[in-house]
Structures are given as structure tokens and as C-alpha cells.
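Design request, C-alpha cells follow.
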């Protein structure tokens, strides 16, 4: 069943990355087919295509450096033989530690941050449902108290996922909600407490103070828990998502990224750029509205899906 779900998601990933594929891979293929030799012109065209595909200058430079080393090591002369090496160079920019999902294996508090409109509350709800389905006892906290809609939305998701929720009133102290949620999580022997928190980047000082306060409460009231901070980014915003991740990183230590809305955008290359430039792993990606359209990120699947055509064959 799990294997079927994975295959189903891979199919949606292939379909969802269609615009990114047109934006990046179509250009790459034309370079491979049009070049007669692996020379400076070949590398220059390839470099330009990757930069235009939202991978950015720094990430592209790393990829090109890695690719040139692989070409030299393998004594490759034909541009057409470069594709698999390029795929390996792309994958090399994205890696997950063996303990990337350690929060699933021990009593944990997960803070989920992100600006309005990126799919943050929805991601918390989807994650809660998936953890519940995997046999975990899950609790969610509606600590984004600055939007009544966020509280209502998370309440609806909690009901759908059949998990308990701790919520306050709109405008109440987010730290107070987390305080109540932490005590509830401990008394109910919860495996994972997911906290939906506000992310007002336009007022970084307030955000920093709020997150510090929440952190102090978790440290004091639940010191033995495993702490994880995930930032949610909208994949359709391309380089702006990278900038948001950088700004959040100035405010709080980020353990991972949830990259949403990758379906229907030409900017999917940002998944590679974020990990390469910031050294922060993308842990989940979203390619749709359904609860199982948010899945753990797999670099092999992502690059393979990017290079597949709609019929499922490698381009």
C-alpha cells in the first residue's frame, strides 16, 4: 500500500513539474542535441539555462563545477552522454541526513513558521493527518493567533485528520497557547505536537521576540522533548522563497523546509537552490491540495521526475 502511494505521488510529481520541466529540461535537451562537442560554448549555454530556471547563480556555479569534474573523471566527449552526469550533479546539491525525520521517532514539539499565503496552516493539517495515519498520537496547536482564519482553518484540518487541537482566541498570546499545548501533550503522552505559528517577516523584531518566548516555554516546560522548526515556503515565488528562508534563518534556527505549490509552477528549480545555497534541507514538498499531496522530499525522485516526460519515459 505504501509503495502504491509512493508511485501515485511520483506520478503527480512528474505531472506537477511539467512547467518546470519545460522551463529547464527542454532547454537542456536542446543544448545536448545541438552541441557537437563539450566545449566552453556548451557549458555557457547550459549555465545560462540553469540560471534562468530559478537555480540562481551560486547554485548553478556549484553544479557546473561538479559537472565539469565528472566529465573529466569519466573522459566524456559526447554532449549526449552528459545528461546522467548532470542529473548526478543536481542531486549532489540536495541531501538529507539520516536523522532528518528524527522528530517522528521521539516525543517532539514541531514549530511550523511561514508568512501568510504560503500554505503553512494547510501543511500543519496535512502533516498531522499523515503522522496520525502512521500510528502517531498527534496534537496541533493554533498558535497563529493573529488570523482568525488560521485558527478556523486548523480546527477544520484537525477534525479532518481526527487529531486534538489546542486553540485560543484571535489576538491572544501565541506563547500562552503553546504553554497550554505543551502541558496537554505531556499529560496525554502525545508523540508529536505540531504548532502553527505566525510568521510576520515585515516585523522581524516582534517575530523574533515571539519565537524566543515560545522557545523558552518549550525549554522550561518540556525540556526532554525533541524540538524541530520547519519553515513553509511557496514554490511559485522562486527566488523570493529563497530570500524568505534566508530572513527566517536570521530569526530562528531552521531544521528543514516544507516547499508547497510545486504543481503548476515553472520555478520548481528553487527546491535545488534553497538546499544548495542555505544548507537547509527541503524535508517535504507539496504538489496539490489533497492530504497525501504533501510528501517527504526525495532528491532522486525529484530529479528523475523533472527529467521524465508525461508518458513516464526519460527525456
Amino acid at each position: 500500500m505504501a509503495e502504491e502511494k509512493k508511485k501515485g505521488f511520483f506520478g503527480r510529481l512528474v505531472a506537477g513539474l511539467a512547467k518546470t520541466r519545460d522551463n529547464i529540461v527542454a532547454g537542456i535537451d536542446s543544448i545536448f542535441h545541438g552541441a557537437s562537442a563539450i566545449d566552453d560554448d556548451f557549458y555557457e549555454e547550459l549555465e545560462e539555462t540553469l540560471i534562468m530556471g530559478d537555480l540562481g547563480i551560486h547554485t548553478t556555479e556549484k553544479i557546473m563545477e561538479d559537472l565539469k569534474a565528472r566529465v573529466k573523471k569519466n573522459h566524456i566527449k559526447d554532449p549526449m552522454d552528459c545528461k546522467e552526469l548532470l542529473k548526478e550533479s543536481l542531486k549532489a546539491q540536495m541531501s538529507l541526513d539520516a536523522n532528518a525525520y528524527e522528530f517522528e521517532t521521539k516525543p517532539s514539539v514541531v514549530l511550523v513558521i511561514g508568512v501568510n499565503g504560503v500554505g503553512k496552516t494547510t501543511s500543519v493539517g496535512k502533516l498531522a493527518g499523515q503522522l496520525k495515519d502512521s500510528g502517531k498520537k498527534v496534537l496541533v496547536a493554533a498558535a497563529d493567533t493573529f488570523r482568525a482564519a488560521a485558527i478556523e482553518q486548523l480546527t477544520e484540518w484537525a477534525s479532518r485528520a481526527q487529531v486534538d487541537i489546542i486553540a485560543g482566541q484571535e489576538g491572544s498570546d501565541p506563547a500562552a497557547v503553546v504553554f497550554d499545548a505543551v502541558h496537554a501533550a505531556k499529560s496525554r503522552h502525545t508523540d508529536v505536537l505540531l504548532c502553527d505559528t505566525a510568521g510576520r517577516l515585515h516585523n522581524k523584531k516582534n517575530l523574533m521576540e515571539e519565537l524566543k518566548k515560545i522557545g523558552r516555554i518549550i525549554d522550561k516546560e518540556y525540556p526532554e522533548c525533541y524540538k524541530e522548526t520547519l519553515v513553509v515556503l511557496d514554490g511559485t515565488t522562486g527566488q523570493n522563497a529563497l530570500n524568505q528562508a534566508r530572513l527566517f534563518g536570521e530569526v530562528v534556527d531552521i531544521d528543514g523546509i516544507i516547499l508547497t505549490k510545486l504543481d503548476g509552477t515553472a520555478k520548481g528549480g528553487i527546491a535545488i537552490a534553497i538546499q544548495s545555497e542555505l544548507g537547509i534541507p527541503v524535508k517535504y514538498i507539496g504538489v496539490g491540495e489533497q492530504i497525501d499531496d504533501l510528501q517527504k522530499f526525495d532528491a532522486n525522485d525529484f530529479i528523475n521526475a523533472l527529467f521524465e516526460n508525461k508518458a513516464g519515459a526519460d527525456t
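Comment from the thread starter after seeing the answer: thanks! The chain has a mean pLDDT of 90.
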